[in-house]
Specification:
By secondary structure, the chain is α/β, with parallel strands linked by helices. The chain contains 7 helices and 7 strands. The protein has helices at about 15-30, 40-50, 65-75, 100-120, 150-165, 195-210, 215-230; strands at about 10, 30-35, 55-60, 80-85, 125-135, 175-180, 240. The chain has a 7-stranded parallel beta sheet, with helices on both faces. The longest helix has 22 residues, at about 100-120. The protein is globular and about 45 Å long.
Length: about 250
C-alpha cells in the first residue's frame, strides 16, 4: 500500500510542471487526485496523463465562484480533503519602474490572494490530521533584481503558512511550504522576458547553483509528498528548500 492509499489530494495548478508531477507522485502512492488549472489545453493533457481515476476541474483561483464550484465538486465526489497542495502561481519579472498595476494585481491575486482563499474555502472539507503544502520560492531568501512583486507575493505566502500552522494545531492539520530553486518547468519560459533574456538569466543562475544544474519537477514532487505524508508527522510551519543548495551554500 502507498502512503496515500484512499487519501483525497487536491492540487491547484496541477495541470503542468511541479503540480502535474506532484499529482502523478500522489497517484502512484494510491491517492484520489483532484487537479485544477485554467488553461484548457494543458488541462486536457493532464487528464490524459493522469487517467480516468483523477478528477480534473477547470479553476481560476483568483475567482471566488470558481473556488466555490471546485470545492462543491470535491464535496460531491469525495466528501473530504486529506491533502491540499496550493501550488497555483504565476511569475513575471520586471524592475519596479517597469511594473504596471495590472501586472502587480495579477501576480498578487494569483500567488497570494488565490492561495489564501483556496485554503479558506477548503477548510470545511479538510480532515483532522490532514496536511496543507504551499509553493513558495527561493526568491523569498534573496533580493533578485526584477522580482519585487513575485518575491513579495511568495514572502506573504511563507508567513501565511506559519500563521495557518498555528491556527490549525487544534485540528492536527500540518501546514508547510516547499521552496523550489530553479526548476525546469514551462513557467521558466513565461517570465515576460525575451528568449535571449531567458537564456542569459538561465546561464547566470546556473553559475550560482552549487549543484550546477536545474532541478526537475519530479524532485520537487517527492519533497511535496514527503511533507504531506505521515513521514513528516512532526513537521509543521516550515519552508523546505529544494534548490540544489542555492539558498544554503
Amino acid at each position: 500500500m502507498g502512503r496515500f492509499t484512499n487519501k483525497v489530494v487536491v492540487i491547484t495548478g496541477g495541470n503542468g510542471g511541479i503540480g502535474l508531477a506532484a499529482a502523478q507522485e500522489f497517484a502512484r502512492e494510491g491517492a484520489k487526485v483532484v487537479v485544477t488549472g485554467r488553461n484548457p489545453s494543458s488541462l486536457a493533457e493532464a487528464e490524459k496523463v493522469l487517467g480516468p481515476d483523477a478528477l480534473v476541474v477547470p479553476t481560476d483561483v483568483t475567482k471566488s465562484a470558481d473556488l466555490d464550484d471546485l470545492f462543491q465538486t470535491v464535496r460531491d465526489r469525495h466528501g473530504r480533503i486529506d491533502v491540499l497542495f496550493a501550488n497555483a502561481g504565476t511569475a513575471k519579472l520586471a524592475p519596479v519602474e517597469g511594473t504596471s498595476e495590472a501586472m502587480f494585481d495579477e501576480i498578487i491575486n494569483t500567488n497570494f490572494r488565490g492561495a489564501y482563499f483556496t485554503v479558506q474555502k477548503a477548510l470545511p472539507l479538510l480532515s483532522e490530521g490532514g496536511a496543507i503544502v504551499f509553493t513558495t520560492s527561493w526568491f523569498v531568501q534573496a533580493g533578485v533584481a526584477g522580482t519585487s512583486v513575485v518575491s513579495a507575493s511568495k514572502a506573504a505566502l511563507r508567513n501565511f503558512a506559519r500563521t495557518l500552522a498555528s491556527e490549525l494545531l487544534p485540528r492536527k492539520i500540518r501546514v508547510n511550504a516547499i521552496s523550489p530553486g530553479v526548476v525546469e518547468t514551462p513557467l521558466f519560459g513565461k517570465l515576460g522576458l525575451s528568449e535571449a533574456s531567458v537564456q542569459e538569466l538561465g546561464q547566470h543562475l546556473m553559475q550560482r547553483i552549487p549543484a550546477k544544474r536545474f532541478g526537475t519537477p519530479e524532485e520537487i514532487a517527492k519533497a511535496v509528498t514527503f511533507l504531506a505524508s505521515d513521514d513528516a508527522s512532526y513537521i509543521t510551519g516550515v519552508e523546505l528548500a529544494v534548490d540544489g543548495g542555492l539558498t544554503q551554500l
